[in-house]
Structure formats: structure tokens, C-alpha cells
Amino acid sequence: MKRIKLQIALVALLPMVGIFGISGYVLFKQSSELSLREQLLPLTRLSLNAGEIVHELQKERGMTVSWIKSGHQDALHETVKKQRTVTSSVLGDFVAKVSALEIKDPHLSGEIEEVVQSVQVVPELRIQADTKTVDAGWVVKNYTAKISSLIHLVGLAVESMPSPEVSTELLPFMILVEAKEAGGLERALGAGFLNEFAATGEINVQTYLNYIAKFGAETGFLNEFLTLATDEQNAIYAKYVTGPEVDLALEWRKTIQALPQTLDAKGIEGGAWFAQATKRLNLIQTAANEIVGRAEVAAKAEIAAYERNIMVVSGVMVCALVLCGLVVVWQLKVICGVLRRQSFVISELANGKLDIEVPFQDRADEVGNIARATAIFQSNRKKQVAQEAEAESRRAAESERSQRLEETISRFEQAISSLQRDLSEETQAIERAATSLVGIAAEAEEQGSLASSGSASATVSVQSVASAATELSASIREISRQSSTANQVSAETSGVAEQTDREVSQLAEAAERIGEVVDMIRAIAEQTNLLALNATIEAARAGEAGKGFAVVAAEVKELSQQTAKATDEISAQMSGIQTSTQDAVNAIRSISAKIEEVQGVTAAIAAAVEEQDAATAEISESISRAATGSSEAAQSVENMAGTINHTRQQSEGVNQSVERLGTLSGSLNNAVESFLSDVRKERGIAA
């Protein structure tokens, strides 16, 4: 049962591992995205700082250019110094924030490091400008390079940001920074152009063209902003970049743009223009700061969303694992309970409790199949037990019948032995009597010959003949008595032979009944084999669960085959027994026939003896009348000689019959012993 629990747990573990793996993958992806956004969130703030530095450097650049073009006036130099202080403060804050960043992307980290190194050169630019050895073009070129690196940093933030929402906020911010850069250059070039016109009254065409180019660049960037920005971003821009200050700056811009045609600056000085343009750019910077602030808010919201997603996925994963665990435990209890119940039922059936109820037979799943197969096994087992009981009953009856047969055989054997002894004794007595009769007949024949040869002297020898006649009469009476005894013994032998014939016939009938029992055993073996075949089929239908039944069915089938084989051997042996029994019956009947012949012979002997007795009486009478004539005596002697010769011949026939009777008695004894030995052997094989 533990292995089944382990297998079910392993099967259930697969979806749990799948849930864990998928959830782990989702958590890994979410965590990776969260980590990336957490790393890039400072980059969003850094973009805001970069925009502020760009704004301050633009003002410092314009003021420095104005200071140089004014001939290095001290008042303007003080203004430049104040701006440098503001710029340095913002720059220091920027460098500190960059140092605190932990960017794992080596390319991005290298780009940021290059930007930091670039802006850290600003103090050297200031020193060069304070030496009054550089012109305005040099200042614009070097400051613009630093500002461009900061704008590039904003572009890096836009490119590196994985979130479309944050990029949507940062891209318009970068465009505004680009527009401010163009506007800052326009502001500086416009101030220089006004100052130069005020000093010379002439239009510097190259300066004017540069001014118009920067104006076009700012206008292009602003138009791009208005196109790419969302409605909220456009609303922010419209909210801040408006009002009289903006209108005045735009009006002065038109005056500067028309100056080559009008040659009238309308009293606008370079410093005033610079200040008014700065107010407008400050408003654009304020709008840009709010837009980049929205990018930071979007980044934080996205980070919070990823954190929520991680919590939700973790919660779902834990709940799914717990639910799977509960389902697994529940299924383990249900399945193991069902299997435990089925195992108990099968164990009870194996222990012989066939009346137990088999549950779950109405289920449509594999458990129901097992239950129904168990019910079939129970039914087959009940039939098998009933058949075994019936077979046991038949075996008991057969055992009882065998016992009775054994007793009958024993009695028959005893009777046969007794009869054989009596027959042997009587046969010997008959043989002795026959031998004696032959001797007497020979002697009588010899005496008859002597009487015939001496008939002439019969008268003289009457006394001797009388004496011989007396002895002959006694011998004839003895022969008569022995013949009667032989006849009686033959009659008794005939009765014993008839009794033996009946008992052997009963034995033949018993052998036939044993053959019927053997046929019944063969039929039972065939039915057992058929049941074993049915059990094998049902075990095959049951699949793995029916392998045990298949083994039992195979053993039952093998036993039935062995029984059939033993039954065939018993049948063959019984056929031999029946043949031997029939031979014994035939032999006994032959003996009976021979005994009847002996009876006929003894009856003839008795008749002959009676005749001899009568002849002897006649001889006695002839002796008394011997004197009447020798011719009658001679004739009587001749008659007596013939009778004696016939008696001798009959005695020899009796002797031969007795010898044949002894031979037949021995054959009967051997046949009976062989029959009894075969019956005992077959009974031992059947047992």
C-alpha cells in the first residue's frame, strides 16, 4: 500500500512540479523585469537632473557668450559667476546620484560614465573663459558638446527603458530638452546679433543665419513634441508655456527676425532679449520637469504593478500547491481506502470466506472492473468449492466402494483359497482312488486271464475262485464307494466352480462399475479443465490484477490434466482387469465343464462298479453252480474279463481327468491370484 501511495504521490507531484515550474518561471520573469525597472528608475530621475543641468549650462553658456561679446564687462562677469554657482550645485547633485547608481548593463554604465567625465570638464572651460583668451565661438562649441552628452544621457534612458509607458513619458521630455537646446542657442545668438547691430548698425548676415537656423531647429522640435506627445503632455505644455512673458518673447523674436528688413530693433537690447527668452525657456523647463516627473510616477506604478503581480503569482502558486496537496491527500485516502477494502475482500476470499460481499461493483472505473472480476472469482470459487465437495463425496463413496470391494476380494480370496485346498485334496484323493482302481482293474484282468486259462480246472479251483470273487466283490464295493465319493467331490467342486463363476462375474461387474467411475472422474477432470480455461480467460480480461488468478487457473488446469492422465492409465489398467476377469470367468466355466465331464465319468464308473458288483454276485452264484459246467464258467470268466478291461479303461480315464482337473485347478489359482493382484494395483493407482 505504501508503494501505491508513493506512486500516486509521484503522479500528483508532476502537475505540482509543473505548477511550481511555471509559477517559478513567471516569478523569475516578473522579478527580472522588476529588478530591471528598479535599476532604471534612478535613470528616470537622472534624466530629470540631466535636463536641469542642460538648462543651467545653457544659461551659463549664453551669459558667458554675452560677457565675452560685451568686451568682458565686470557687471556681466558677476552675473556669469552667480550662474556658475547654480550650475555647480546642480552638477554636484547629478554626479552624486550617478555614483549611487547600480547599473548592471556594462554598456549603459560605460555611457553614463562618459557623460559624467564630460560634464566634470566644465570647471576647466570656466577657467579658460576667465583667461579672456577664448572667443564666443569656442565657448559655444565646448559648452554645446557637454550639453549634447547630457541630452544623449536622456536618450539612453529612453532607449534602455523596457516599459512603453515610461518611454512614452520620457521621449517627449527628450524632445523638449532638444528644443530647449536649440532655443538656448537661439537666445544666445539673438543677444549677440542685437548687441552687434546696436554697436555697428549693420546686419551680420552669418550671425543672423545661425540665429534663424536655431529658431527653425527649436520650432521643428516643438512641432515634433506636439505630434508625439499625449493629450495630457500637450495639456501640461500648454498650461505652463503661455502668458504675457511668452507672448512678449515671441513678439521680440519676430522683431529680431525682421531686423534685416526693418533695421529697427525697437529698442530691444541683447541683454533684455536674453532675459526675456530665458523666462520663456524656464517655462518650457518647468513643463519638461513635470513631464519627466510623470515618467517617474509611471515607472513607480509599473514597479508596484510588478510587485503586485509577483505577490499574486506567489499567492496563486502557494494556493495551487496547497490545493493540489489537499487533493492528493484526499485522493490518497479515497483510493487507498478502496484498495484496502478490495484487498481485504480478496484476502477473505483467499481464506475461504466466500459469503463476503464484494463492494464497488456498480462503479464504472477500474475499481469497478476489479470488483466485478473479484465477484466472478468469488462465483467461480463457490462453484469450485461445490465441485470439490461433490468430488470429495464421490471420493468418499468410491473409497467406501473400494473398501467393500476389498472386503469382497478378501472374502473371495479366502473362499477361493479354501476351495482350492479342498479341490486339491479331493483331486489327490480321486487320483489315489483312480490309481487304486487301475491297479485293481489290472489285477482283475490278470485274474480273469488266469481264470480263463484255468477254466478247465474250475471245478478243482472253485474254492480259490470263490475266495478271489469275495476279494473282487470287496474291491468292487471299495471302488463303488470311491466312485461315489469322487462323484460327490465332483458335484461339490462343480458347485464351488459355479459359486466362483458368480463371484468372478460380480467382480467383472465391479470392474465395469470401476470403469464407469473412471469415466466419471475423466468427465470431472474435463469439467475442471474447462473451469480452469474459463478462469484463465477471466484472468486475462482482468489484466495485471488477474495474474494471480491466472497462476491458480494454470495450476488447476495442470492438476485436471494430471487427473485425466491418471484416469486414462486407470482406464487402461481396468481394461486389463476386465480382460483378466473375463479370462478368469472363461477359465472357471471351462473348469465347470470339465468337472461336469468328471461327474459323467464317475457316474459311468459307478454304473460299471454296480455292474461289476452284479457280475460278482453272478460269479458267486456261478461258483455255487460251478459244477454244472465249465462252459458256463468259461463264458462268465470271459464276460468278467471284458468288464474288468472296461473298468480298467474307465479308471485310466478317471485318472487322466483327475490330472486335468489338477492342472485346471492350478490355472484357476494362478488366474485368481493374478486377478486379485491386478485389482489391488489398480486400486492403489486410483487411490
Q: Roughly how many Å apart are the termini?
A: 45 Å
- CA radius of gyration is 74 Å
* CATH second-level architecture of the largest domain: Orthogonal Bundle
Shape: rod-shaped
- Structural class of the secondary elements? mainly alpha
Low-confidence segments, given as residue ranges, are none
> The biggest beta sheet, please?
none
Assign the CATH class of the largest domain.
Mainly Alpha
The succession of helices and strands, N to C, reads HHHHHHHHHHHHHH
The portion of residues assigned to helices is over 70%
Strand portion:
under 5%
> What average pLDDT do the residues reach?
75
What's the CATH topology label of the largest domain?
Helix Hairpins
Number of helices: 14
Task: Output the CATH homologous superfamily of the largest domain.
Answer: Methyl-accepting chemotaxis protein
- The overall strand count is 0
How many individual domains?
Answer: 3
Write a structural description.
Helix content is 90%, strand content 0%. The mean pLDDT is 75. It is an all-alpha fold.
SSE inventory with pairings:
Blueprint: H1 2-69, H2 74-100, H3 106-119, H4 122-130, H5 136-160, H6 164-200, H7 205-228, H8 231-240, H9 244-262, H10 270-350, H11 366-453, H12 462-542, H13 547-624, H14 630-686
Helix pairs in contact: 1-2, 1-5, 1-6, 1-10, 3-5, 5-6, 6-7, 6-10, 8-10, 9-10, 10-11, 11-12, 11-14, 12-13, 13-14
Concise account of the structure shown:
With 687 residues, the protein is mostly helical.
Key terms:
687 residues; de novo design (two linked rop proteins); Helix Hairpins; mainly alpha; 3 domains
